[in-house]
Amino acid sequence: MPGLYERYQAVSERIAQAAQRAGRDPGEVRLIAVSKTKPYEMLYELAAAGVLAFGENKVQELDGKAERFEKESGFVPEWHMIGHLQRNKVRVLAERGIRLIHSVDSLRLAEEIEKACARLDKIQPVLIEVNIGQEESKSGVRLEDAPALAASVSALPHLRLEGLMCVAPAVDDPELVRPCFRAMRALRDELSEKYPSCRELSMGMTGDFEIAVEEGATMVRVGSAIFGARDYSLGDHAG
Ligand SMILES: *Cc1c(COP(=O)(O)O)cnc(C)c1O
């Protein structure tokens, strides 16, 4: 069994190869290690090897791990909130200070972030999450509603719209989600003409990140291929 950092490097290498296949510069793609449900010690091991971008999907878990990094290590990771965000958790996240919220999917949530960040006098970079597969079980706005939300978010002074995010449908053959990634890219291209800061495309997970990179992802969020399968039976981690 290769070590944690070896697995991270293997994913990086596959990203670089996918980028090259598509004629892209591998440096355009950022790998976010999705560490949800995994213990602090594993994150620390990666941080010690130079990996400092982590994705979490629960505010409490993110906050707890960030606090341990602050108190027990010399590392300052950048944190990515990738999960569905409840409005009553926004303040904790704003106070913690995180690199990017990937999962803005309603104006009410955006306004809550605006309120919290105005109070702290800071600007929060965000992505709009699009439910690209139109799945009942998933969060995110519909593709056709994304431009209106982008306009509203861009008008909020303490938010900076940096791009779009999606979780593609889980399918056996990742080729099937290529059209989803293409549609995301087309939407990003359209929005970035109006909103120049809207440049990022957060898409691709363990099962489909190479296709996402071929189709223009600038951030991929990979968990299991780095950390191994998640065990939800031990804690209260849903999702
Ligand atoms: C868990 C999760 C990931 C990573 O999933 P893997 O399949 O383990 O790579 C990526 N994005 C989101 C939003 C997630 O919740």
Q: What is the helix content?
A: 40-55%
Give the distinct bound molecules.
pyridoxal-5'-phosphate
Structural class estimated from helices and strands = alpha/beta
Number of separate helices: 9
Summarize the helix and strand pattern as letters. HEHEHEHEHEHEHEHEH
Largest sheet: 8 strands, parallel
The overall average pLDDT, rounded, is 95
Spatial strand order of the main sheet: 7-6-5-4-3-2-1-8
**Radius of gyration, in angstroms, nearest whole number:** 17 Å
> What share of residues are in beta strands?
15-25%
Shape: globular
Overall number of strands: 8
**Low-confidence runs of at least 5 consecutive residues:** none
Question: Ends: how far apart?
Answer: 26 Å
Structure summarized in a few sentences:
The protein has nine helices and eight strands.
Give an overview of the whole structure.
The protein is α/β, with parallel strands linked by helices and 239 residues long. It has nine helices and eight strands. The mean pLDDT is 95. The site of pyridoxal-5'-phosphate has 14 residues, from strand 8 and helix 9. The site of pyridoxal-5'-phosphate (PLP) has 14 residues, from strand 8 and helix 9.
